Amino acid sequence: MFSNLRSLIFKIDPETAHNLAIKSLKFNFVPNIFDNKDHERLFETQIFDKAIDNPIGMAAGFDKNAEVYNQLFKLGFGFVEVGTITPLSQYGNSKPRVFRLVEDEALINRLGFNNYGAEDVLIRIKKNPQTGLLGINIGPNKDTQNRLEDYLIGLRTFQELADYITINISSPNTENLRDFHNQSKLNKLLKEIEVEKKKLNSKVPIVIKIAPDINDVDIEKISEVLLDNNIEAVIISNTSDATRENLKDIQKHQKGGLSGKPIEDRSNFLINKFYKSLKNKIKIIGVGGVDSGLSAYNKFLSGADLIQLYTGMVYKGPNIVNSIKNDLSELLLKDGVKNFKEIIGNKNKT
User: Fold this and answer.
1) Catalytic center residues
2) CB 194 within 8 A of CB 188
3) Span 298-311, mean pLDDT?
4) Backbone angles phi, psi at 142, to 5 degrees
5) Where are the alpha helices (DSSP H) in 40-82?
6) What percent of the chain has pLDDT above 70?
7) Which pLDDT score, from 0 to 100, does residue 2 have?
8) Using CA atoms, how far apart are residues 225 and 94, in angstroms rounded to an integer?
9) Average pLDDT in the 16-33 region?
10) 98-101 and 106-109 as β-strands: parallel, antiparallel, unpaired?
11) 136 φ/ψ sector (left φ>0, alpha ψ -120 to 50, else beta)
12) Cβ atoms within 10 Å, residue 133
């Protein structure tokens, strides 16, 4: 059905189309036909000491205000991450701010953490308890005087509800946010978060979302900080404000974060570098260009323990999880693999 509607959907402004998708899911316009359990044993896994059906997650950015996470579980996602959520509501950057690069199977966005704010989202999640593993992605308000405190507010607000909290230091659309990739600034941030967790007597796992545009020399430095602060997982990676040189679409020079197929190779490269550096002590959630069984397979080979997607669903439609699982099943069974975890990091063994 999606393939028949795609040409019509793609005539609509991307942000408007996204809002329509949220409304469709919110009012259950999409039937629950995505319960394929074939080869389920291939995909069973654990994260943060919790079992999930499969390692395919929805990345932050789709369900910014935590409106449809339970509907996304019905579409087959093994886990869902909502946000980015800031302490106070904010409009974000001026429109237009989302662009489809159809020739490149990509998006560019410069949304700027548009969301309803932490208290609004908190009330909504309390009213609609999650039916699967739910991550909450937090960030600072654009005009805040204290970004570090904004992260602590997010932690205080959601630590009792979230299955994990992602600290977003990697959006290219909030000025100077990526300064937190600096070793000393990142260490200070994570130390403050750990102090706050102790005050709250909180055990919520903390995840860090990394930019794809870091220098290779920074990988060891960032890894050292993550290991020193007992971070439980790292998301690699966010959208890119580089990686434009080989794009074909006329809108390739739009300012913002690039996602989709063009950042797949860079994402896989970084995943593999961090895999070697972190030595299996921190889980890796791989993001960037996931839209098929083969792309998922390559993420796992590079060292990802789980994967996330967003742009892939824009281009492939709401049945993308089952499509990936079916294709991935064939690849794994062909290679005699009993569970996808057997191939994690195997790129380094070939």
Assistant:
1) 171
2) no
3) 97
4) -60, -40
5) 69-74
6) 95
7) 54
8) 35
9) 78
10) antiparallel
11) beta
12) 24
What CA–CA distance (Å, rounded) separates 241 from 261? 14
Question: At 98, which helix (H) or strand (E)?
Answer: strand 98-101
Query: Token pair of 149, please?
Result: 């405190």
Handedness of CA 316, 319, 320, 325 (dihedral sign): negative
Q: What is the rounded distance in angstroms from the CA atom of residue 11 to the CA atom of residue 159?
A: 40
* Conformational region of residue 204, where left means phi above 0, alpha means psi within -120 to 50, and beta covers everything else: beta
Residue 97 pLDDT > 80, yes or no? yes
Superfamily of domain 40-349: Aldolase class I (3.20.20.70)
Residue the block writes with tokens 């409106």: 67
Tokens of 300: 């796992």
Say if residue 36's pLDDT is above 60: no
Lowest mean pLDDT among 35-39, 45-49, 239-243, 267-271: 35-39
Of residues 139 and 38, which shows the higher confidence score? 139
Q: Which two tokens stand for residue 111?
A: 């949304």
Per-residue confidence (pLDDT) for residue 32, from 0 to 100: 54
Radius of gyration of the chain (CA): 19
Residue 37 — pLDDT band, cuts 50, 70, 90? low
Local structure of 53: helix, strand or coil: coil
d(CA 239, CA 242): 9
**Amino acid, res. 301:** L
Do 258 and 107 contact (CB within 8 A), yes or no?
yes
Residue with tokens 């005539």: 11
H-helix or E-strand containing 81?
A: strand 79-85
Q: What does the domain layout of the chain look like in residue ranges? A: 40-349
* List of residues 6+ apart from 241 with CB closer than 8 A: 172, 213, 255, 256, 257, 258
* Listed residue (129, 86, 96, 81) closest to 17, CA to CA: 96
Choice among 31-40, 192-201, 285-294 with the minimum mean pLDDT: 31-40
% of the chain with per-residue pLDDT over 90: 78
Q: Per DSSP, which regions of 237-305 are E strands? A: 257-260, 283-287
